Amino acid sequence: MKFDPALLIPGAKLVGINLSKEPLMGMDLEQADLTEANLHEADLSEARLHSACLQTADLKGANFSNADLSEADLTSADLSGANLSGAVLTGANLSRCNLTNCKLEGADLTQSNLERSNLTGANLTGANLTQAVLTESDLTAADLSAADLSKAVATRAVFKQAVLEGARAKFADFSGCDFTDARAPMIRFERSALSLCKMERLNAERSVFEFCDLREAKMIEAIFAQADFIGASLSDAKAAACNFEEADFYWAEMDNFKMVKCRTKGVRFPEKIKVACGPKNVNPPEIRPIPLYRRAAKF
Description:
elongated, little secondary structure
């Protein structure tokens, strides 16, 4: 049955409506209720869906390019293969969504909730994920080149085979993440939590880990050539067959950091501070450094 275009207004109650493959470019559906709606392959480019409800909606292959989905609720929606390039998704709830092979180039996902979402193969090139929540999300083979993940929370997320080249991830929480076979040259992790991470065959050459929390991280056959670990905490971390050539560990905490069969040519290691002069039989005061990295979530 053909839908009535007059129903498509801001705040409309459109639960379960079938708008599959419909041309809805530039439509104003602010605060509309589209729960369980069928928008499969619909064209909603440049549409206004601020604060709209799209819970469990079928949005497979839909076009939301340059659309406004700020503060929209897309919990458990199916967005597989959808085009969200340039879309505004600030504060949107995308938890438990299917975003496999989704196009999100240049999308604004600031403070969005992507908890436990499936982003396998998604294109997030240049996306803004500042303060986004990615807890336990699957980003296997996703492209996050030049993306901004600053202050994001991505505990226990999976980044297997993901591309993070040139991404910014300052003061974020990646504790317990899996970076197996990921490519992340020149990524900036300053002051981020990366404790308990799995970094097997990770390529992070020329990357920045300044003042990061890398405690108990597991690094196997990873590439960290020319990486910056200044001030990082590597206590109880393990590295096997890794390339650390010309890496900088100055001021790093390396208590019980085990390096086995690693390449360390040209590495700058921490230097012990020696008191040059002082009163006899007087020890220098004990100084407990305050961690500069983000505190990891407890799990």
